[in-house]
Design a protein that fits this description.
Blueprint (H helix, E strand, L loop, with lengths): L1 E5 L23 H13 L3 E6 L1 H10 L4 E4 L12 H9 L8 H8 L1 H10 L7 E4 L14 E5 L13 E2 L2 H15 L3 E5 L5 E8 L5 E10 L11 H5 L7 E4 L6 H17 L4 E9 L5 E7 L10 H8 L4 H16 L2
Parallel strand pairs: 1-2, 1-3
Antiparallel strand pairs: 4-7, 5-6, 5-7, 8-9, 8-11, 9-10, 11-12
Helix pairs in contact: 1-10
């Protein structure tokens, strides 16, 4: 079986004048593609690089693959992650990961939260603002947290994203509106412990790969922001500790796992996802966001680090994604 790999490389883009330096943070490195290729080769598959955007379209039209391993983030709209799977569905080519609808609704953080809440799952109260003036009328409890409405990979998430009052929030919202030219999600800040959960499979075969707690070492947990500064810091171990499994009571960890599974299902995720969860001041775990195209760069991405600490082999994750997709498509 030949598996094509759809991807977007950060090296293929460069921020234009005036754009923030994290504008293309979601895009992958060649190391990610090479890691996937090695894993698939060990599973007996042949691979072909399809790339993303117009290059992907030209390559897949010229010679379709038996299956596409999709990690392409797309570019240009809040539905960008749906571009590649939409083309593949039109061409009737099987692919891994979630379908266009799920990829579109999860990238828009407000839509994802509304869907999760409609299933009775806990998520922080929030509002979407499109102007600085709207900040003054919010009926939310401070501290609040502001981030771009439809971005991933901590784009626009900085240590100053946590606002203690209306003046701080207005300043941050103004920056986000100017830098990213999209609405801003403002939600009540959860001051408890932070977790990310890896999930693999579908239906009755869905399983938790592991739960990772992100523990602050540099500031009190109640003030901690898992920001881009932390993730980019070569000395990140001075700021955070990744605990897998969390050093918490079994019942607490099980509640986090169940919220992650329920969120995965409520959003229609497939094959692989990472769910971010944080407890509020009362210890109640709340859904923050879903990542149905989670970063999987070996030794770097949160999911890869989680699996490494949970003693789950990287190759087993990649081959597990393919096995789950093949089962769905009857291949």
């Amino acid at each position: 079986m030949e598996i094509g790999i759809a991807f977007d490389l950060k090296a293929d883009f460069a921020p234009a004048d005036g754009e923030p330096d994290d504008r293309y943070e979601e895009f992958d490195s060649l190391a990610t593609v090479e890691g996937i290729e090695r894993a698939l080769a060990r599973g007996g598959y042949t691979t072909r690089r399809l790339g993303g955007g117009r290059r992907f379209l030209e390559n897949v039209l010229a010679r379709p693959c038996d299956l596409v391993f999709n990690i392409a983030e797309g570019f240009g709209s809040r539905s960008r992650e749906a571009h590649v799977p939409s083309v593949l569905e039109m061409l009737k080519i099987p692919y891994t990961h979630s379908d266009p609808l799920t990829l579109a609704v999860t990238l828009d953080k407000a839509v994802a939260k509304r869907l999760v809440a409609s299933h009775g799952l806990a998520t922080p109260r929030f509002e979407v603002v499109e102007s600085v003036d709207a900040v003054r009328g919010l009926e939310l409890a401070y501290p609040l947290f502001a981030k771009p409405l439809f971005e991933g990979s901590s784009i626009g998430v900085r240590k100053k994203s946590r606002a203690a009052n209306a003046d701080e929030l207005a300043a941050r919202v103004a920056e986000l509106l100017a830098d990213y030219r999209e609405p801003v999600l403002v939600e009540e800040y959860c001051s408890g412990p932070e977790f990310t959960v890896g999930l693999l499979g579908n239906g009755a075969e869905l399983r938790v790969l592991g739960v990772m707690e992100v523990v602050s070492k540099a500031v009190p947990q109640a003030e901690f922001v898992y920001s881009l500064e932390v993730k980019r810091n070569d000395d990140w171990h001075l700021e955070v500790d990744y605990q897998v499994p969390p050093r918490r009571p079994k019942a607490e960890v099980e509640a986090i796992e169940e919220l992650a599974r329920a969120s995965f299902r409520a959003l229609g995720c497939r094959d692989l996802a990472r769910i971010d969860i944080r407890a509020d001041a009362h210890g109640v775990p709340r859904f923050l966001e879903a990542n149905p195209l989670p970063g999987i760069k070996p030794g770097w991405s949160d999911l890869a680090l989680l699996c490494e600490r949970a003693h789950v082999e990287y190759d087993d994750v990649i081959l597990g994604v393919v096995a789950a997709a093949r089962a769905r498509w009857g291949l």
